[in-house]
Design brief:
Radius of gyration: 20 Å
CATH class of the largest domain: Alpha Beta
Bound molecules: biotin
Structural class: alpha+beta
Helix content: 25-40%
Distance between the termini: 34 Å
Strand order of the largest sheet: 3-4-5-9-8-7-6
Number of helices: 8
CATH topology of the largest domain: BirA Bifunctional Protein, domain 2
Number of strands: 14
Amino acid sequence: MSIKSGLLAALIKNQGNYVSGEALSKKLFCSRNAVWKAVKSLKDSGFEIESSTKRGYRLISAPDALSVDTVKSFLDGFGEALEIQVLDTVTSTNDYAKELAAKGAKEGTVIIAQSQTGGKGRLSRSFYSPDKTGVYLSILLRPNIPLSECLMITSSAAVAVAQAIEAVSDKKALIKWVNDIFVDGKKVCGILTEASTDIEVGGLSYAVVGIGVNVTEPDGGFPDDLKDIVGALFKSGEKASRAQLVSEIIKRFFPLYRNLSARAFLKEYTDRSMLLGKSVRVINGDISARATALEIDRDCRLKVRFESGEEKWLSSGELSVKL
Ligand code: BTN
């Protein structure tokens, strides 16, 4: 994490309380002067920060402007070759990225939207995507892997998002097999990877990994049909920076993606699992059966033991697993 991003994370985690310059310099492994420079840089980006010689720094307001410039300012030189676009509104960032892919857009094209009118989830579900309270992000990839490996893209993105959430907030992020991130018992993020195959080459022509994170609760809360299941990282009115979250996700995702075959994400994916060792419901269409979640293998299949004693490896496919 850059000093600027680390500083903002520390101020956000303290939500308006003072943090001393000394504590910050210890936490960020840098000099007090470097802290001061990072404060100045945040102020230049529109963050309102109060300084007191005795008490340190506190965040008064965060602009939460999600733009190419703000994302790049937190990327701090990482991924110079990324082609980032921020759209006001779009049907689905995944669909938009797929259109660009069909026109030849390159790996590393990143589409971010302030809102989506037709956000999509797994199993033909929709993803609620209200204006400016979430991060709706799709990354176009052109990996040289078989279709069967695409799930690893989802899993590595899940680890990247969980790490990024913990870097920018004081929340603990757990992964619910196969593509959901939970915080405080509620789903705060879903990931949908879609791919297109090239029959002639016999591999993938592209993959689009779509990530939706509920950053701040929408004013008035989530709709009735979602409010018991879905949550956000920050309460309405709390200070947050979606640009910082996007950049922390990107910085963590690409190194894991580049090491897919080495399964660089796998240990953490398993360690963060909220299902392992738990009693779950395995749902396939209209059929639901109770089982115990036992382990996750290197292809991200989930082994379960049904009440009958039968053990089975589940692949994500059309299945869903609930606690
Ligand atoms: C799920 O919950 O099953 C996955 C949700 C994925 C939502 C993200 S938001 C950005 C991208 N665009 C979409 O239409 N979907 C993904």
